[in-house]
Amino acid sequence: MAKQQTNPQPVDAAVTPRFGSIPTFMRLPHLKDPSQLDIALIGVPWDGGTTNRAGARHGPREIRNMSSFMRKVHHVSRIAPYELARVADLGDAPVNPIDLMDSLARIERFFAKVHAGGCIPLSAGGDHLITLPIFRAIAAKRPIGMIHVDAHSDTNDRYFGDNKYTHGTPFRRAVEEGLLDPRRVVQIGIRGSIYSADDMEFAESSGMRVIYMEEFARLGVEKVIKEARRVAGRGPTYISFDVDGLDPVYAPGTGTPEIGGLTTLEAQHLLRGLQGLDLIGGDVVEVSPPFDPSGNTALVGATVMFEILCLLADAVARRRKPPKKR
């Protein structure tokens, strides 16, 4: 089926108030066919990989609600994502709240269809284990790079005996499965107490560039952007943003908060500095609304999602441009 010629547009808040109409990501139309889109906004309402405070399964619904605050044009870059790319809410990936392995399979099948439709996914979780089945769908043919904002490396091996699949293990599994090239991975904001002295051994020995929060503070945002771009290089790159990478004063509604993190402004500046990379998808994870009745963490999630959407739309537009003649 040929792609539509008219790009979907958000509901205009100057015509229909933000508290009106059915909530969708960015107030966009809800469509079901990824082949009609360049970028699909997708919810993954699942937290079966959570090891302590659950609740991220409710993240997509609240992020949709708070995304009504987003408008059409980025105020700094002037990127107008809905003019550059066909974007819509593709709904939620199917999940099984009582069966972890079945959920991983369902999520992978859903995103495989999205990928087969030629569509870039931008997802709202859910806990961080959702990124693994997404990678299985979009990186099956070649390993990809990743820019990862998080308080935790998520490269542990096992929990509770022989459990290899939790929100603390997805990127170790992704490297082992050949989905993620560790030499093209940068992890930003890592901090907090650890289980043992060798917890970070896999990430560091595999070749990941780990920027602990102390180094982030010492370098500053601009130098971290430069380093992230160096590590990602020119290959296909995914952005994975865990809201616990932020200090919990900005995002208290998350399962594993760690003090001393990024500010929301630092995070925005960091993301804006990634424009021009070969971006092929992204996610915002670990928004847990039950731990923040104010809704502020969901607003942070929606805003970060819009920042990433602008980057992805710019990447779509850049790929359409014919190469310059020498």
UniProtKB/TrEMBL annotation:
GO biological process: putrescine biosynthetic process from arginine, via agmatine
Tree of life domain: Bacteria
Pfam family, one: Arginase
Cofactors (names): Mn(2+)
Cofactor: binding comment: Binds 2 manganese ions per subunit.
PANTHER family, per database record: ARGINASE/AGMATINASE, GUANIDINO ACID HYDROLASE, MITOCHONDRIAL
Family, similarity comment: Belongs to the arginase family. Agmatinase subfamily.
Record protein name field: Guanidinopropionase
Native species: Hypericibacter adhaerens
